[in-house]
Specification:
Length: 251
C-alpha cells in the first residue's frame, strides 16, 4: 500500500512546492502548443470558415517548433527527467497527425527528426543548467568557508597576512593592521618594508608559492623583530597565495 501511494504523494508534494508554478507553466505551454498544432482540425470540426487559414492546414514542421518552449523550459527548471517526460508527451501529441491526418510526404520521419533534435537540445540545456547550479553551489560553499576562515583569523592575537603572487596584500587581520596599518590592496614590500620594489633574496614568497613552509625572524628597520611562519594557501579564486602569521618578539 505504501509503495502504491509513493508516486501520488510525490505528485501532491510537487503541486504544493515552490516549483508548482513552473509545473503549471509547462502544462499551459504544452496545452497551448497542442491546441495550435491541431487548430486546423478544430476549425473544421467547429465550422469556423472565417478563420480557415491555409497556415493551419500546411505542413506542420513550423508548428512543431512551438513545442521547443515547454521542452527547454522543463529542461531548465526541472532537469533531465522532466525533459524526457515532456519530449515523450510531445511525441505522443504528434503521432495522431503523423499516422492518421497529415496528407504530406513522410510525416512520421519529419516528426521523429524534430523529436530527436528537440530531445537533444533539452538534454544539453538540462546538463548545462545542472552544471551551472553545481558550480554556483560550490562557489557559495567556498565563499562561506572562506568567510569562516577569515572570521577565525580575524580573532587571532597573532598578525595574519594573505599575500598574492603579485605581492598584493589580500587580507590583514586586526592585529596586523595595528602593527602596520591597513594595507589591503597594496604591495607587501611597500607596507612592511617601505620599499618600492620586492625585498629581493630575503623574500620568501616564491618559495612558499612553490609549496614550501617557511619560518624565519623578520627584522624591520625600526628595530622591531617578528617570528614569522608562512605557508601556501589557495584562495577562493583558485590562486595560490602566501598565508603568513607573525608574532612580535622584540620592540
Amino acid at each position: 500500500m505504501g509503495k502504491q501511494m509513493k508516486h501520488p504523494e510525490k505528485f501532491l508534494n510537487l503541486m504544493g512546492s515552490p516549483n508548482a508554478f513552473s509545473f503549471y507553466a509547462i502544462f499551459v505551454m504544452w496545452a497551448v502548443c497542442t491546441l495550435f498544432y491541431y487548430f486546423g482540425e478544430v476549425v473544421d470540426f467547429a465550422g469556423w470558415e472565417a478563420i480557415r487559414w491555409e497556415f493551419f492546414f500546411s505542413v506542420h514542421d513550423i508548428h512543431r517548433l512551438l513545442f521547443l518552449a515547454p521542452i527547454l523550459y522543463a529542461a531548465y527548471v526541472f532537469g533531465i527527467k522532466a525533459t524526457i517526460i515532456i519530449t515523450i508527451i510531445s511525441l505522443m501529441t504528434f503521432l495522431p497527425r503523423a499516422l492518421f491526418i497529415s496528407p504530406y510526404p513522410d510525416p512520421l520521419a519529419r516528426m521523429l527528426v524534430f523529436i530527436v533534435c528537440a530531445g537533444i537540445m533539452g538534454y544539453l540545456t538540462a546538463i548545462i543548467r545542472s552544471e551551472s547550479k553545481r558550480r554556483s553551489h560550490l562557489e557559495a560553499q567556498l565563499i562561506g568557508e572562506r568567510d569562516k576562515l577569515m572570521g577565525i583569523l580575524e580573532t587571532m592575537q597573532d598578525g595574519v597576512l594573505i599575500i598574492g603572487p603579485d605581492y598584493k596584500i589580500r587580507f590583514m587581520n586586526s592585529s596586523a593592521k595595528r602593527e602596520f596599518s591597513d594595507g589591503v590592496g597594496s604591495n607587501c614590500h611597500k607596507v612592511l618594508q617601505k620599499l618600492d620594489t620586492p625585498c629581493g633574496q630575503s623574500c620568501k614568497l616564491p618559495l612558499v608559492l612553490s609549496g614550501n613552509i617557511q619560518r624565519w625572524k623578520y627584522n624591520l628597520p625600526d628595530g622591531r623583530t617578528y617570528e614569522v611562519m608562512a605557508s601556501p594557501y589557495r584562495d577562493t579564486d583558485g590562486v595560490i597565495c602566501q598565508l603568513t602569521t607573525f608574532r612580535k618578539i622584540s620592540t
